[in-house]
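DM from R.C. (forwarded with permission)

"hey, sorry to bug you on a friday — could you get me a structure for this? deadline for the figure draft is monday and I only need the backbone to look sensible"
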Amino acid sequence: MQYDPIKRSLGNIFNKNPFLRKTFYNLLDLLLLRAWHVHKELKIWQKTAPKAPSILDAGAGYGQHSYWLSQRLPDASIVAIDVKEEQVEDCNRFFSAVGAGNRVKFEVGDLTNFTHPDKYDLAISVDVMEHILEDVEVFKNIHASLKKGGMLLISTPSDQGGSDVHGDGESSFIEEHVRDGYNIQEIQDKLRSAGFTKIEARYQYGAPGKISWRLSMKYPILMLGATKLFFIILPFYYIIAYPISYLLNWMDVSMDHPTGTGLVVKAWK
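My reply, with the result:
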């Protein structure tokens, strides 16, 4: 399934004014299990972060992670990179409208040739690397862009059923993915080859997360892909499904998983 047309449809609804955009960000943070895991790691990082950190959002998408960081770290300087010019322009308009345009800047850029040497204390890459074939080049560029001691945080599908692929004959649920998921050793080896000296990786989307993802994301996306009429039904669907997904998300973040369909990886320069 192509995910981008559905994302554009959602964007058209929630981009009408800043209030709706903030509501959209809050909904994404509640619904998306990856956001729960990413926020958990960012809260840990924040305990020892510089007072006014410089942050790179590498593959910013809607900008929800830049917004979350800007709210928690009001003294941070954030540069957000994305290849889609229209999305970058839209995000810059929103952040200017909410008075954060001086702290959060969105730029059009290709991560395979983007570097700002020794500039950032933190780089995040959420739901990005599965879309980029030249992943080692991106890791090298981010490594070069981090300050000494800077951290890269990655959230990406694993090869244990990531992208909803469970066998050799299956294709990715999201057609825009260039890889179904990373082997945990593979991504660590690639990060080492890019220059990172300390790496930690763990699974996300264990048994509870797999069920939550189907309830909160897969089934709604499939229904939205089938008919836009489901936009009308969607709020009522989530009234029933979300309490279950919330509990499952909490369980997934609280547990250690021997395997899972996603990976959270931290790497330090």
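R.C.: lifesaver. The chain has one domain: 4-268.
me: no worries. Confidence is low (pLDDT under 50) at residues 165-174.
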